[in-house]
Amino acid sequence: AAGVALRTDIVVIGAGQAGLSAAYHLKKQGVPPGKGFVVLDANPFPGGAWQHRWPTLTLSTVNRVHDLPGMRFTETTGEALSSVQARLAVPEYFAEYEKRFGLPVYRPVRVLQVTDRADHRLQVQTDQGPVSTRGIINATGTWNTPFIPDVPGRERFLGRQLHTQDYQNPHDFLGQHVLIVGGGISALQLLDEISQVTETTWVTRREPEFRKGPFDDEAGRAAVSLVEARVRAGLEPESVVSVTGLMWTPQVEAMQQRGVLSRLPMFQHITEKGVVWEDGRSLHVDVILWCTGFRSSLSHLSPVNLREDTGGITLTGRLATQVARDPRIHLVGHGPSASTIGANRAGRAAVQELCAFLGIT
Ligand code: FAD
């Protein structure tokens, strides 16, 4: 493989918040870079999925990007203006972080699949060649796996359809009627910006539930433990917003005053020109923007059969990162740790448990 050690003890797949936290703790624990561990990342530059976020997502409109362990965000950004784009500021921070701690990140290297070897090792097949390893910390996030529900007629629509992942700028839709589908944080943010420049309609499956009052640590812990219970039981994790609810903020208040917050229930099918509800009502739209979320990017792990009949991957260990069916593999930034703070903690727990399991350091 081009520059990749062919044989190592631990491969970290992905260099987002979760992968970098794991790499930091491996280094701190004395696992030697290269021979002891490598990080493989498919992106061309540091920054994980943040480098792909839409330009209007700024440091004031993200919820909160937690510091990685051992170095503050403000060390690269200074007291960054809240108008700074997240897709620029976060990658700058990650780049500096990788350099400061000498983390062995190889990029762009895409992991294609992970298979079992006869000698109890795992074979990581990449687009740059194979790497043999004893353990894996998987930190591949969700950005590469956008989810769009299978609504009948989707392929017939003659207007434009796009997913949150493709979104760039509200001005792309000037003069068009945009249908925004989804009840999560991204749907709400994009509805806010697009409705300021053009006509919008908002559709959600369920009545959105707004949380009045602050989203404090206790509420965060309660939300995480709900998702954690699911993955410990071998079920697919639910979306974060389904357990946290939406925040009632001054922006949301302003949206309500502008009259853009009223939502319609989910439509039943799609036609060439728009959407139709069960009761026969229809609406012509030019654009359908699917803000319907992401799924964990795990297809490269299919050959090692981690899934249960229940559809999910049972996770165990202190923070539910270790795969019950194959303790050589940890999933971080997944399910209960799919947030910047969760990814930090999961990276540490996964390193401690995997090193203990493999008898390293
Ligand atoms: P990523 O940052 O997605 O990194 C995964 C890395 O893995 C990528 O670099 C990718 O290229 C690489 N990769 C994927 N597949 C492969 C492969 N097969 N081979 C090699 N490399 C691969 N959380 C918060 O706490 N606060 C927020 O404000 C917040 N805002 C968000 C806004 C949006 C729009 C979204 C989508 C998420 C947001 N989150 C937020 C969630 C948060 O970004 C993540 O949970 C967190 O950053 C953890 O990232 P990660 O390391 O799991 O993944």
From TrEMBL:
Organism expressing this protein natively: Deinococcus cellulosilyticus (strain DSM 18568 / NBRC 106333 / KACC 11606 / 5516J-15)
Entry keyword annotation includes Oxidoreductase: yes
Pfam families membership: Pyr_redox_3
Protein name: Oxidoreductase
Molecular function GO labels: flavin adenine dinucleotide binding; monooxygenase activity
Keywords per UniProt: Oxidoreductase
Protein origin, superkingdom: Bacteria
